[in-house]
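Replying to the earlier thread about multi-chain prediction with a worked example.

Input:
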Amino acid sequence: MSEPVLSVRGVRKRFDTLIAVADVDLDVGRGEKLGIIGPNGSGKTTLINCITGVLRPERGRIIFEGVDVSRMPTYRRARAGIARSFQIPRPFVGMSVVENLLVPLDYVESKEEGVARAHAILASVGLQSRAGDPAESLSHLELRKLELARALAAAPRLLIADEVMAGLSEPEIDEMLDILFELNALGVTIIMIEHIMHAITRFSERLVCMETGRIIANGKPQDVARDPEVRRVYFGK
Amino acid sequence: MSSWRFGFGALAVVAAGAALPHLVSNSYVFYAGFITLQYVIVATAWNILGGYAGYVNFGAGAFVGLGIYSAVFLFKAIAAPLWLQVLGAAAAGGLLGLGMGYLTLRIQGVFFSIATLALTIVLNTIVVNWSFIGGARGATVLAPAPVWFPSIVSYVFFATLVLAVITVAVARWIERSWVWRGLAALRANEQAAECCGTPTLKLKLFAATVSGALIATAGAPYPYYASYVEPGSAFGLTIALNALAMPLIGGTRSWIGPVIGALLLSSIEQAATVTIPTEVNLLIVGLVLIGFVVAAPDGLLGLFARRQNQGARA
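Result:
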């Protein structure tokens, strides 16, 4: 692996008596396409929330591009280059599609450049025709695209895509994967969390499987898929 | 509306306000005008936190009361002129907004609203027990004769007009800046806004401070206007209800919405005051509010936009 863009060191997060993330260590290389799988409740989203700062881990460190961001608030991590999408799309209702993108762009571009950049990003994800429409009028696929577009507007170096393909049809999954491949080709490191196995194995160079807050397998997708422990907890055999 | 046009419009309003006392002798115009302008300030300032950021503040009465009693304090302590009373009220209101925000803005939704409601009761209790500013008996403030204006009420009317113009200008500036987008984003979803780089807590504190400072200025000219103030009316819960009702009636998404709501509500109240018992005012506000929540949940602006969209589709 190249020099890690993200290093997670001994991160632990507990909710009352439940240990959601148990002393996890994880490195993600610059430009890597990493997939994280695991059954519901295995700690995937909690780990992401710790990386992005939405949750404060009980202990451990998050190092992004050589800087310890463990104590940084979420907005500063976002400005440092960590962007994410949410499992359930969270559009900024009451704003147009293009205004949704201007929220993160306000912190990275001047006003005029921001509007031009927002339209360019919308074109790259196929939403340019909906730029002026209210965000709440978008279809499910369009909302997923808006989530991605808004994350891209923050000019990230690391994008965490949390179940961006949930609820999409096969052609829509292909469309979403194409967008993610293009982003990665532009140099954005991507961590993908997904339950749709054929999509995540197609996308990822490396796969990590989590169970009860721990990483139980870490390697090439085909090796992880064959791992007996993974098959036991994830595939039920 | 361009900034130039808005600027010229604002100057024209201020100039007309300065000329009016020399053209109109009926003092009722200035009494009614003061109340209307006070409503414009309260509604517009409340909307900065309640409308743009979506944090419903039930404590507007506390801020108006604080403005009133800051003015009383400064008058009694150093015989401060009105402009200094207004500045003092703004500083006190801003500090209270910041403090309230720091303590309560981590709480979301209904819990925040309940916390702000308690603020009015706390301040009322403090004032009732502070004899220097009149305590429960109230305080008499005899304003010195104004220099250029024919009467004290016309002077207070003009000062409140200037404050209303400043408040609307501040709200309009926020609406056209990145601050509005940040507030609107956190109103829609705080976590997603934060993940987009929006400093949600800082923005909320900014909104609470500005909103608090401006609402308090609405109270500052009142002691000169009424010459007697007492805690019961200064911290009345009617103000809290009106502060909420006016932006909801006009529309919370733009600075013009609260202005329309304030003009409408104050006109209805003025009409009710001279035709039916004043106790019915609150009932009227309640009925108007219920009517708008049911028929036009996005206020008059939302209703107008919806009609326009329907017209465009037809």
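Chain B has one domain: 3-266.

Feel free to reuse this layout for your own posts.
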